[in-house]
Design brief:
12 helices, alpha/beta, 5-stranded parallel β-sheet, Methyltransferase, Cobalt-precorrin-4 Transmethylase, Domain 2, 3 domains, Cobalt-precorrin-4 Transmethylase, domain 1
Length: 281
Amino acid sequence: MDNQGKLYICPTPIGNLDDITLRVLKVLEEVDIIAAEDTRHTIKLLNHFEIKKPLTSYHEHNKREKGKTLIHKLLNGEDIALVSDAGMPGISDPGEDLIKLAIENAIQVIALPGPTASTLALVLSGLPTGKFVFEGFLPSSKKGRTEALQNIKNEKRTIILYESPYRVKALLEDMLDIFGERDIAVCRELTKKFEEIFRGSIGQSIEKFAQKDPKGEFVIIVKGTDKVEISEELQEWADISIKDHLLKYINQGMTKKDAVKNVAEDRGLPKNEVYKESLDL
């Protein structure tokens, strides 16, 4: 409806305030209200650019009730800018829920481009960028974290993870246990004065951060696996040759033709490849 407000998704700098876009500044100046993850953090940004607009908190612990309030304001014609503490709202933060709620209520959502730590770190990593998967923050408990790592250990695409300085050592150690050695880029304090990109192996990164306590927010880029994962069905036959596999069926009374068909199905191979192995049987 024409009299409804619009929800603007406004990325904010992840460190360097100069990275804010002119368009984001214009929207922040023109909206009726700004919904911020942490109003104390956002007020510093607004003061820096001399923007004076009403602020309201919208975060993980109040998103259900505050979300309803914000949707009501949007339906009544108020324009709202959604910002996170840093980067693109809706990525690993509660903005995801407000965006979904706005779409469900047929409210126009307008996303502005801007700083995003995940893609910035990916480009800086030197690892393959053609295909990648974003996993964000893994569970904070060791059990949850190791389960999550087990689920992605066979991922062939480059993996992007977020982590706090308090858990980054534990994450790296669990990664080494589950992934084994692999190329990695550990990025911290991106766009800030003490920006640091460590490129090397997982083991080398553990040695580096054992020497001093990690500081700043971390983005970790991990190379996908080069290993070919064998399914449980194929694993059953991995230890015997194709000829022995054929003989197994033939000795059970199967014709050579049927044995070739079954072996091809078991091993996921073309029948002509299995047939060649059967010629001298």
